[in-house]
Amino acid sequence: MIVVSGIQPTGKPHLGNYLGAIRNYVKLQDEAHSQGGKCLIFLADLHALSMPHVPQELHAATLEMVATLVACGLDPARTVLFNQAQVPAHAELQWLLQGTARMGWLNRMTQWKDKAGKNREGQSAALFTYPVLQAADVLLYQATHVPVGDDQKQHLELARDIAQKFNNDFGSEDAPVFTLPEPYIPEAAARIMSLRDGSRKMSKSEPSDMSRINLSDTPDEMAQKVKKAKTDPEPLPSEMAGLEGRAEALNLVTIYSALDGSTPEAVLAEFGGQGFGHFKPVLAEKLVEVLGPIRDRFVELKEDRESLDAILARGAMQAREIGRPTLDAAYQALGLVRG
Ligand code: ATP
Ligand code: MG
Questions:
Q1: Rounded to two decimals, what is the model's pTM?
Q2: Pocket of ligand 1, candidates 72, 74, 203: which has the most ligand atoms within 8 Å of its Cβ, to mutate?
Q3: What distance in angstroms lies between residue 24's CA and the mean position of ligand 1's atoms?
Q4: Where in 44-144 does DSSP place strands (E)?
């Protein structure tokens, strides 16, 4: 089992990132470790170049994301934690795969269409070829399991197509250069919605800070945001059917259950009949209970530049080592002379 996943270091990590992604990384780290496998989690800083960005902000956000991941429970002794920029093999393999990826394949990517909109001519070349770098990210390590959200499934399919074509064109049947990666969709990845609008997901790029719980919020800020969260005047129902058409209420129940490790049904069984005046303080308390210790670790680690640098340096060294045989095999398969 080789788990590989990346996360972009842009913006402030929030509750949705934690419950939807980071917490699963921690589970996968434990799973891979207990099976004698490997878990590699990287900061996709090279990917951030595909959109306009402010260099100082990218720099700070990269270090903050490392602090966040470790604060959330990723253990640098068991997970290979690094940033792409310190492992040149990502950029190298990406170029080697550019000869295999087809324009038509990239043109069909819905993320490209969504992000480019009507202004394709004005986009960076990196935004268009981004999925090739993503393919390199996972193929470099012969990943078997790639945790992805719904939005990234198509890119993983593309990575499989690229690997397959490369193996066909340049590998031999008994010695394929790349392993075809499988998407791994964790069963319990909660989708958390905005606190201001239950029809939109909680998101880093949403302008209103009141719409999300940041992992760096103080307990008071968390409580304030929950208190101000949009709801309706009805009490909580005792059954799920009673949440129909009540997106905000459903979201708060989902958050509570995800933090508590229970189910929305169980939460309703306990709190059904009670109004938000009662439920919101209980939810705020639960948030502080779970996120408080994470926040404390984050705040401490964020200031410890030496430790952060050491974590990334060590992770990068391990990643370079794990990726080397595959990168060498790709160069060789393509007939490139390297002394
Ligand atoms: P942006 O608004 O810039 O796209 P984001 O909040 O969507 O930021 P990403 O960096 O795109 O965050 O996502 C990081 C990870 O967190 C991904 O695995 C994504 O699926 C997950 N994630 C993001 N938002 C949520 C959410 N509201 N609920 C659950 N998971 C989420
Ligand atoms: Mg996103």
A1: 0.91
A2: 203
A3: 13
A4: 80-83
